């Protein structure tokens, strides 16, 4: 039997894996063998047999194989067969100047681990300029930035907290971020396919513009995701109380202790380029729908279409309770 990737975990993360995802250290190798056997029997799927990557789905599913199988099938299907989402996986080379433009803007900044094992990501909505980076390209590069974290076992175990900063967001930013077609697909990808375990979704410095966007997003949010939303308005201290240790990883501009925002952006840029300079580990994922067995159909839930009447009559502003 091959050496289990779990053997490289520190004692802290071994213990956390047991608590968070029900992982039995000595059984990880056997789970991987069983999972690979199922993949080999799935004629419509072709993907790299990377043990750490496969573990991300088993851990997401708390080692319930039926759930892990459905999730990885959805991940591959949306990536390859969905006409809109598949565009978000055409990653540029590390030499592409557009990648530098994106990284320097600091739109999506992985910050680091809390003592609890939780990994924190800062999303700065106003730092995205739609005139410089189009909607599809922005989502593509966000996926590229995030996907490397799926290969970190600590992220798989501890999960993620997303801090979404809405300060200085323009009407055009809001319009593009909240575009119904893209927003719906993004929620589908996050809730039906990604093995990233999002444990907190913090909205900071919300504007009235985003009351509409939040109500719209609730149409597609699962109950589980809705329960993990934290709305703090302008008070970052509320987030510090909700997520112990958050102050340690946020940059100084957010009342944190993790250096300047510029240093966090520079570190993220180095990490992205270092990871992808070694290749693109998931570039060979393929799905052949003609070979999909009947047992693997209808895995992805239907997401409601937007009904304009839910927002009331034209000209009516509907205020959403911050709930915090």
TrEMBL record:
Alphabetized PROSITE patterns for the sequence: CRAL_TRIO
Any one annotated GO CC term: membrane
InterPro entries registered for this protein in UniProt: CRAL-TRIO_dom, CRAL-TRIO_dom_sf, CRAL/TRIO_N_dom_sf
A molecular-function term among this protein's GO annotations: phosphatidylinositol bisphosphate binding
Residues covered by the CRAL-TRIO domain: 95-262
SUPFAM superfamilies in alphabetical order: CRAL/TRIO domain, CRAL/TRIO N-terminal domain
Lineage: superkingdom: Eukaryota
PANTHER family: ALPHA-TOCOPHEROL TRANSFER PROTEIN-RELATED, CRAL-TRIO DOMAIN-CONTAINING PROTEIN-RELATED
Protein known as: CRAL-TRIO domain-containing protein
């Amino acid at each position: 039997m091959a050496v289990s990737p779990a053997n490289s975990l520190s004692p802290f993360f071994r213990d956390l894996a047991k608590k968070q995802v029900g992982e039995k250290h000595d059984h990880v190798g056997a789970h991987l063998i069983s999972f690979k056997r199922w993949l080999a029997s799935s004629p419509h799927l072709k993907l790299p047999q990377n043990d750490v990557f496969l573990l991300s789905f088993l851990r997401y599913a708390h080692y319930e194989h039926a759930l892990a199988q459905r999730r990885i099938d959805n991940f591959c299907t949306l990536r390859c067969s969905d006409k809109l989402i598949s565009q978000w996986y055409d990653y540029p080379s590390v030499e592409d100047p557009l990648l530098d433009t994106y990284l320097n803007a600091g739109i999506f900044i992985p910050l680091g681990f809390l003592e609890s094992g939780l990994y924190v990501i800062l999303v700065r909505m106003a730092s995205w300029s739609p005139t410089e980076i189009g909607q599809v390209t922005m989502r593509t590069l966000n996926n590229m930035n995030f996907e490397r974290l799926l290969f970190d076992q600590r992220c798989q175990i501890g999960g993620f907290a997303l801090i979404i900063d809405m300060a200085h967001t323009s009407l055009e930013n809001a319009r593009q971020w909240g575009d119904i077609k893209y927003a719906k697909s993004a929620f589908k990808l996050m809730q039906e396919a990604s093995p990233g375990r999002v444990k907190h979704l913090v909205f900071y410095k919300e504007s009235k513009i985003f009351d509409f966007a939040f109500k719209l997003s609730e149409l597609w949010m699962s109950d589980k995701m809705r329960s993990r939303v934290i709305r703090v308005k302008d008070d970052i201290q509320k987030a510090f109380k909700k997520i112990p240790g958050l102050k340690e990883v946020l940059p100084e501009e957010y009342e944190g202790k993790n250096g300047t925002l510029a240093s966090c952006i520079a570190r993220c840029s180095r990490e992205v380029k270092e990871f992808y300079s070694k290749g693109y580990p998931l570039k060979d994922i393929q799905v052949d729908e003609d070979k999909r067995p009947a047992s693997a159909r209808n895995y992805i839930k239907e997401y409601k279409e937007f009904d304009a009447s839910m927002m009331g009559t034209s000209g009516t502003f509907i205020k959403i309770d911050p709930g915090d």
